[in-house]
Every structure is written in C-alpha cells, then in structure tokens.
Amino acid sequence: MISYLYKIVIIFLFFITPIYALTLQKANIYTDQNITQWTVSEKLDGIRAYWDGKNLLSREGKVINAPKYFTQKLPPFELDGELWSKRGDFENIQSIVMDKTPSSKWNEISYMIFEVPHMDGDFEKRLKKAQKYIEDAKLLHVKIIEQKVLKSAEELNMFLEDIIKNGGEGAMLKDGSRGYFDGRSDSLLKVKKAQDMEAQVIGYKEGNNKYKGVMGSLHVRLKDGVEFFIGSGFSDEIRKNPPKIGEIVTFKYYGFTKGGKPKFASFMRVRRD
User: In order of start, what are the domains of the chain with their CATH numbers?
Assistant: First the structure.
C-alpha cells in the first residue's frame, strides 16, 4: 500500500514540476580559453526569467507574478533573459519581481533577452528572430542584451574593465556558431573580476555542523564603519586559529549591496605589514 501511494506521489510531482527548472542553460567559468570570434555581453545582476510561451518562470520553475501588460504581448515562442533595471539595483529588482502582488514599480523593470531556446539556427539568427518580434509588437520593456564579437582576449579584458569601472558585475561569453543547447556547457562561460579590500576583525561567530566549536565566520569592520561577516575562504586550520581581534584581513568581493556591504566576501589572508 505504501509503495503504491509513493508511486502516485512521484507521478503527481512529475506532472506539476516545471521541466524548465532542469533545462536552463548554465555557464562554466572562463579560465583563459580561446574565445576568439565568440560573442560577449554584460552579465546583468538581476532576476533570471524564462518565458515558456505562456508563463514567466524563475530559474526554479516558479511562476513570476508579473503584471498582465508585461506578459500579454510576449511571443508564442520561448525566451530566456534577465529581469533588470540598472546596475547596482539588485535588492530593488528582487523586491519588485518576487512580490506576490505586482506593484506599479514593475514599470522600472525591463526583460533583457539573451537567448531564444529551442529555436533553429545559430545564436545571431535566434536573437534576430526575437528582435523582429519585439519591434513588430512594439514591446518597449523587452530588449535584446547587446552582443559583441570578440577578436582577442585583450579585447575581452578591456570590455570587462569598462563594465567593472561603471559598477557592472561581469561578462558572459558564448560560442555563437552553435545551435541552441540545454544545460551546462563549455560553449557558455561567465567571467567576473573580483576586487579585494581590507577590514578589521572585531569578533567571531561560531560555526555549525562540521565547524561546531570552531570559528564559522569573522565579524569585521570597514574603514567607513560598515560591519559584516566573512564566512568563506577559510582553511580548517584557520577556523581553529582565526585572526586575532584587531588584526587586518584582506578579502575578495564582487561589488556592493545597496547597504554598502561587500557581496560574496571571501577571506584571503591576514595583512602582516
């Protein structure tokens, strides 16, 4: 009886779980691969959204409660992109997009398209199809993310430096000659440049599970007074013998939150000079 009920539950979950949560394209990390003639675009710091032709879904396959005007003229074919407003605005974007009842603040959001799933042709052809539809339907809130063909790794570095300098997050690289593919692939790479900074240790937080009884994270303070915790980048030995109160540590991070805290802070070393 239990076995029968278990099978019924599994079948039910199969049919109610969106398949797109399993099939979105996923990027590997750029590590100096040959990317000549690949396309590069800015990696937008927003909320990923997948249009299946009828519903706007999150990366987990949950329906995004967008206002009717936002989705009613979207195409009958699939789109993959980012719900985005501007650089450095992630917290605001998240609060707007994740709200169960769509607010008037959705007028700040654009749907930035970076792929047309399961469409025939190479990357350029797929994007051109979406661009034509967007123009014909006069969808002012839907845009194609600008793509540039790279000639060299040096050109990528210049592109990335410009993005970081202006508050962006990083870049996405794609082999534009390929047809559409599902899942993770070396034909799609992301590149982000971390920055580093110093902070003073002012306390500790005990770890959980395997780190029970040792340091879990460092409580630190920046020169401007902002306090936060660094919880990653530590070896087991450092967790047992953490930096002392008052010492200066160097950490890497990827931009700042709206509240001025470093994002994805990771311990690098104690500054000894």
Answer: 18-191 (3.30.470.30), 195-270 (2.40.50.140)
